[in-house]
Amino acid sequence: MSARRPDRNLALELVRVTEAAALGAGRWVGRGDKIAADQAAVDGMRAMLDSVSMDGVVVIGEGEKDEAPMLFNGEPVGDGTGPQVDVAVDPLEGTRLTALGQPNAIAVMAVAERGTMFFPGAAVYMEKIAVGSQGIDVVDINASPTENVNAVAKAKAVSTREISVVVLERDRHEALIAELRDAGAKVLLIRDGDVAAAIAAGQTGTGVDMLYGIGGTPEGVISAAALKCVGGGIQGKLWPRDDDERRQLVGAGLDPERVLTTNDLVAGADIFVAATGVTTGSLLRGVRYLPNGAITDSIVMRSRSGTSRRIEATHALDKLQALTGLEYH
Fold first, then answer.
1. Which residues of 187-209 are buried (b: 16+ CB within 10 A; e: fewer)?
2. Which of 28, 168, 216, 233 is a good FRET partner for 264, with 20 to 30 A between their CA atoms?
3. Distances in whole angstroms, Cα of residue 78 to Cα of each of 4, 96, 302
């Protein structure tokens, strides 16, 4: 019993970290400054992260140490006690969404046993399909979009016209979008924020059946962690941007042609994910402000039990400011 107690504590400690990041970023919603929004989220996450009872190492962070002064890959985090874990953080997934006041910006982090998270090396992007539990055994990233839409529709016993697919709005996706529509699917275009969309695809009642297309590799790892908790899954393939990046990947022993499954991306069996909404979207409500206070909406997921908790919290900003030394007004 004692071996599991830190895990139970850890699940609910993580949400304090994402709440702090979301509250930091919330001040910058709609203000047109994505750099300031991201920095505020990082500062908020940093203020709480080292109080968490874990011996963590950042595997998926803000980048290399020289480029990311905080929450860089390889950085030790947590208070040094408790379980040894890999940590993936995205203090503000959707910096541009926040700056423009658009939906689906979240603060998110994932934790798994040490050595179980996939490190993507030089691969900034990956091709991916994320689906719920009914779809994961029937999709194939090497098949056509039409075949995958048909397969998910059949597994759900619905018409393809009832399948909603989230795709990042990028020029590289023009052919994908056209084929998905030709297959009968509804295509929901988003500017950024495919972690929230991947989690939404794994849950019922969100209006999202699939996430499809090329997006960030770090986001793919975080999505895999979340989907292991809620019962969905993801398939991915590294997507090198040019021949030089392809050579770097091959040199590091990473095969761009290999299909990466959920378990390849996060091999752990005891995984925790916390996410807090910054702007309201399909998964979470954004930060709502009160006189000297704020309300956050979060989701906390645990793979071992399959538990997914929604947590609405009211924060006294003066007390939070005294605790962290950061400005939240």
1. bbebebbbbbbbbbbbbeebebb
2. 168
3. 18, 29, 19
Q: What percent of the chain has pLDDT over 70?
A: 95
Reading the block at residue 153, the tokens are: 């529709």
- Single-letter amino acid code for the residue at 325: G
At 68, is the pLDDT very low, low, confident or very high (cuts 50, 70, 90)? low
Distance separating the N- and C-terminal Cα atoms of the chain: 42
238 Cβ contact list (under 8 Å, min separation 6): 120, 123, 125, 126, 217, 249, 254, 255, 256, 258, 260
- Please state, in angstroms and as integers, the Cα–Cα distance from residue 167 to each residue in 60, 129, 255, following that order: 23, 10, 25
Q: What is the chain's Cα-based Rg?
A: 19
pLDDT, tens digit, for every residue of 113-136? 999 999 988 899 999 999 999 999
Q: pLDDT tier at 8 (50, 70, 90 boundaries)?
A: low
Give the amino acid at 250. V
Number of neighbours of residue 285 by Cβ within 10 angstroms: 17
| Cα separation, 124 vs 133, whole angstroms | 27
State pTM to two decimals. 0.91
